[in-house]
Design brief:
It contains four helices and 17 strands. The protein is α+β, with helices and mostly antiparallel strands and 334 residues long. Strands 1, 2, 5, 8, 9, 10, 11, 12 and 16 form a nine-stranded antiparallel β-sheet that branches. Strands 3, 4, 6, 7, 13, 14, 15 and 17 form an eight-stranded mixed β-sheet that branches.
């Protein structure tokens, strides 16, 4: 009997020890899992900050997006009859403007531009609320224009230019929705906006257009390629729908407020454009710019993003608006 009691006591002790040990192991595993989850969330948070991020409607655009190498044009008179430029340092000091540039209720970065307003120069015909790439950041000792550390060049540019520039080749990625386009104005102007560009000295290797005519439910996407003077006529490339002034509703078009993404990538003389939509195949177009005149000495590039409003014939109170949810760019450096 004593033997049975001893065995029973030992069994109880072993059982309690195992349970205690098992609970301890479970708690340790849970703690390890919590740590892993927390580390994973932190890592994901860092990745999100580098990409689209968690957009906060209570923050300014520069707090939600990396605007450290962008300035902004708004169509207000800076005093000489041309548009006002918000500098890199100003825009990154929590700049917002309730009429033109602000954070939406969902945290997106809003660009709103009226038909009427002041232009960036006397040679420009249209208003804009648009970011301009400034690779110099806040170092204003570097000039805005030129083959210098504020701008980039093609990878096929002369070696001296590649060394003088801030980088060569480039890619810009954006996710956005077009919220409103004009419904008034001439048939060639109504409903069209430019949502991204590469600008060179005087010409544009690319301008991406969104256009929705007032009787259509969906909009089209196309782009222009403008060679330098003497290197050919402006070229038009339709990607989704038509750029026609009387286009029918594009069956695969993009509605107002529908989110989509674009990428613009230049490597050497090759330009690739992608339109990306959830649940649909990407739409891509590649062109060779070798004969367009941008790979010679003295030609410099910079990205532009936002809203370049290509309607100056609509009613004074008509406007266009786009909201960006992601904006990234990169270049190759020596």
């Amino acid at each position: 009997m004593k033997l049975y009691k001893t065995i029973f006591a030992l069994s109880i002790f072993a059982f309690l020890f195992c349970c205690s040990s098992s609970d301890s192991n479970v708690k340790e595993e849970e703690q390890e899992q919590e740590i892993i989850v927390e580390e994973g969330e932190e890592e994901q948070e860092g990745e999100n900050n580098e990409t689209s991020g968690e957009l906060d409607p209570n923050k300014s655009p520069s707090e939600n997006f990396d605007l450290s190498t962008w300035n902004l044009s708004i169509p207000e008179n800076k005093g000489d009859g041309t548009a006002t430029t918000i500098s890199v340092s100003e825009i990154n000091n929590k700049y917002e403007n309730s009429k033109y540039f602000y954070t939406a209720n969902d945290g997106g970065m809003v660009f709103k531009c009226p038909v009427n307003g002041f232009k960036t120069s006397i040679n420009t015909s249209y208003t804009r609320v648009e970011l301009r790439e400034m690779l110099r950041g806040t170092n204003t000792s570097i000039k805005t224009q030129g083959v210098n550390k504020n701008n980039w060049v093609f990878g096929t540019a002369p070696t001296a230019d590649k060394n003088a520039a801030a980088g060569f080749d480039g890619e810009m990625k954006a996710t956005l929705s077009v919220n409103h386009v004009t419904t008034t104005g001439s048939s060639s102007h109504v409903g069209r906006v430019v949502i991204g560009q590469i600008h060179a000295n005087n010409d544009e290797p690319i301008r991406i257009y969104y256009r929705k005519l007032k009787n259509n439910e969906l909009g089209s996407i196309y782009f222009a390629h403008e060679p330098t003077d003497g290197n050919g006529d402006e070229q038009w490339h339709e990607m989704i729908g038509s750029r026609s002034n009387s286009a029918s509703n594009p069956s695969d078009g993009i509605a107002l407020n529908e989110k989509f993404s674009y990428t613009i990538k230049v490597v050497g003389d090759i330009l690739n454009v992608n339109i990306i939509r959830e649940g649909k195949e990407n739409v891509s177009k590649t062109i060779n710019m070798v004969n367009s005149g941008f790979n010679v000495g003295g030609q410099y590039m910079y990205f532009k993003a936002g809203l370049y409003h290509l309607n100056n014939t609509g009613d004074a109170d008509d406007y266009a608006q786009v909201t960006f949810y992601d904006l990234q760019k990169s270049h190759t450096t020596n």
